[in-house]
Automatic annotation (TrEMBL):
It comes from Tessaracoccus bendigoensis DSM 12906. This is 3-oxoacyl-[acyl-carrier protein] reductase. Residues 217-404 form the Ketoreductase domain. GO terms for molecular function: oxidoreductase activity, acting on the CH-OH group of donors, NAD or NADP as acceptor. Coiled coil: none annotated. Belongs to the short-chain dehydrogenases/reductases (SDR) family. It comes from the Bacteria. Pfam families: adh_short. Gene3D superfamilies: NAD(P)-binding Rossmann-like Domain (3.40.50.720). InterPro entries: KR_dom, NAD(P)-bd_dom_sf, SDR_fam. SMART domains: PKS_KR.
Amino acid sequence: MDILETIYATPAGKFVARKVGLADPPKLRRGRLLPTGPIVLGELEGGRIGRETLTLIGVTPGQPVLDVPEARVKDEKGRAVPPRYPAKPGAIVVDATGVRELTELEGIRCLLRPVMRSLEPSGRIVILASDASAVEGLEAKAVAQAIDGINRTIGKELRGGATSNLVFLKEGTGPSDLASTLSFLLEGRSAFVDGQTWRVGPAKVAHELSAKPFADRIVVVTGAARGIGAAIGRTFARDGATVVAVDIPASGDALAKVANELGGSALQLDITAADAGARIASHVASRHGEDARIWAIVHNAGITRDRMLANLDEKTWASVLDVNLAAEMRINDFLLSADHPGGLGEEARIVGIASTSGVAGNKGQTNYAASKAGVMGYVWALKEDLADRPITVNAVAPGFIETEMTAAIPFVQREIFRRTNSLSQGGNPVDVAETLAYLCGPASGGVDGQVVRVCGQNLIGA
């Protein structure tokens, strides 16, 4: 802890920080917890999937308050203000799947204005809309993108750790396809996902939601010895998974400790080895039997070798691309090439780790940004290659996450990284882990080819 951080932690330091606009960030609701206040449903004309999906996940929605002229009240200064909710709502789900015309966007404003300053801490706004690919006409397609702009803006205007996210629904999507996504967004599992948009479509194989979605299922996590990787392993184990923890031999002791904690197994492996995919499959088969198959593989292992491009030689360049991207591709190529003993199952989930640096670039990280942008491109392309198989492929793109590595960043720089998002704080490793577990869930089969940012709506690339 440097001198500035020491001063900041004192009462006087906190007082000065508040005076200059650096108040303590809100505490976020995490875990499998729904909001404590009522979950309100706002249905615009033509929308019904929101109600059906809420019923499916066991939520009875409350009635929304509408901001219409006749319902407004006067404040102490005589100004007309929107009507108030009798109790702070925990969340509002806006079903805008039937919206096709620009004038119909008024309905979204009418629903959202009363909740913008009324949501409970860590409240939720979830907007459901039809994907542009599922609507006809130029105006309807423009409206879909307009809703995205609404979502990203209100995410930046909310207070107290509240978040807003938008789900675009592809043609043919039903309540069972949407249920896992809506559950994730309403619960504390999505604490650090804010201002984001992704798509859900019809699942090739339907599964019901479960409190232990990975029971009797094998999940492989690379880079599992510490930090985000260890949190990923713990989250999957909490949800019933048999975890195969993978990391380099130099991290063998830490890896064994994590694997033992989770009741799983450890595989010491350099993922850049040409036979890495074969060795993963062999390990699974030897530990769990020839008929065992991997339900999900989480390609978490990664490195940074930050240099300004003017100082970046070919070895440093290649090492980052090899670990962060090429190794993932080689492992997947092997596991997807045939029905290997201990290989991927028929409905496997493949997830990678991208980064906000891959979304927007970052000074001194040309090699890292290239590798993480490459992960996104690979996910989009592989999804198309696997279109005739019930395997899904997705990625998360973390922003600033509090780890041992980021704790070594100088205090002022670290505070800047923490504060430059809508939630004014860094995320926790579990935030990344929860999003990965959501993407790998059996009931998330309708989520495919998506990159979900876990960044608190980081201003970089926002």
